[in-house]
Amino acid sequence: MPPILEAHDLTKRFALGAETVEALRGISLAVQPGEFVALMGPSGSGKSTLLQLLGGLDRPTTGSVVFEGRDISHLSDDEATRLRRERTGFVFQAFNLIPLLSVRENIALPFTIAGQDAGRGEAHDRIREVIALVELEGKERYRPDQLSQGEQQRVAVARALVTRPSVLLADEPTGNLDYTTGGELLDALWKSSETAAQTIVLVTHDARAAAYADRILVIGDGQITDEISLGRRADHSAAPLIARLAQIGL
Ligand SMILES: Nc1ncnc2c1ncn2[C@@H]1O[C@H](COP(=O)(O)OP(=O)(O)OP(=O)(O)O)[C@@H](O)[C@H]1O
Ligand SMILES: [Mg+2]
């Protein structure tokens, strides 16, 4: 199968006053449909910058991003916005939920924004499906402040998945969660990967989170420095990965 997402020799430079920061220095990668890929690397290595380019949130300085066979690096702002809304799902470290809306209303937001009635038909079914996926049945009417941090992040995941995006991009989604709630979130991501063949690119510092992935790309100073293929497996114990990471000094 052709890759669902490709990066070709991406560079990204930021101007900071008189100085230039080279955040990415020539990154090429390919993600297969249904693949679960983790991006790991030290703080400041360029992981978030790369994820933003992959999702069309920002444009590369040079190089290109090809999404479902189409070069998205030079889309107009309108086209990029449409692509993000319709084809990609984002989850960030901060949950970004709307405090005054219920769980269900937060998850329904992509439909509401598009002017669709989320109360029936396909939208209604999908909302129910993702609520079941993240195991929040019975909490549809709660507001975010009535939920635990882990539950709030699961709402964010459900909202990202409700549009059935081709690719789910997640930047440190477990960064604000404790061990148990982080594990529940990772299980929800894994379930979407297994049951819906959801393609996932996950940025994480956490070897336990990365151990859910099929493949890990290690980023150092704006380049891919190592690649670790773990393959698809139901056992997500982090020990083998931690041993591999120790060998490469991470
Ligand atoms: N908007 C920006 N303006 C200027 N420099 C930026 C900008 N965004 C990122 N950078 C720089 O690019 C480099 C990579 O940043 P990035 O946020 O991608 O790192 P990261 O790997 O995600 O780090 P962390 O693990 O701390 O989140 C850093 O040196 C950062 O300061
Ligand atoms: Mg980051």
Set down the secondary structure blueprint.
Elements: E1 5-16, E2 19-31, E3 36-40, H1 47-54, E4 62-67, E5 70-71, H2 77-87, E6 88-91, H3 103-113, H4 121-133, H5 149-161, E7 167-171, H6 179-196, E8 199-203, H7 207-210, E9 215-220, E10 223-229, H8 239-247
Parallel strand pairs: 3-8, 3-9, 6-7, 7-8
Antiparallel strand pairs: 1-2, 1-4, 4-5, 9-10
Helix pairs in contact: 3-4, 3-5, 4-5, 5-6
The structure holds adenosine-5'-triphosphate (ATP) and magnesium ion.
Magnesium ion (MG) is lined by residues 47-48, 171.
Helical residue percent band: 25-40%
**CATH structural architecture of the domain at 5-95 and 165-247:** 3-Layer(aba) Sandwich
Care to count the β-strands? 10
SSE string, helices as H and strands as E = EEEHEEHEHHHEHEHEEH
> Which structural class fits the helix and strand makeup?
alpha/beta
**Largest sheet strand order:** 6-7-8-3-9-10
Please give the radius of gyration in angstroms.
Answer: 18 Å
Q: What would you call the shape?
A: globular
Name the CATH superfamily classification of the domain at 5-95 and 165-247.
Answer: P-loop containing nucleotide triphosphate hydrolases
Q: What are the segments in which pLDDT stays under 50 over at least 5 consecutive residues?
A: none
At the fold tier of CATH, the topology name of the domain at 5-95 and 165-247 is: Rossmann fold
Mean pLDDT: 94
* CATH class identity of the domain at 5-95 and 165-247: Alpha Beta
- Tell me the β content: 25-35%
**Gap between N and C termini, in Å?**
32 Å
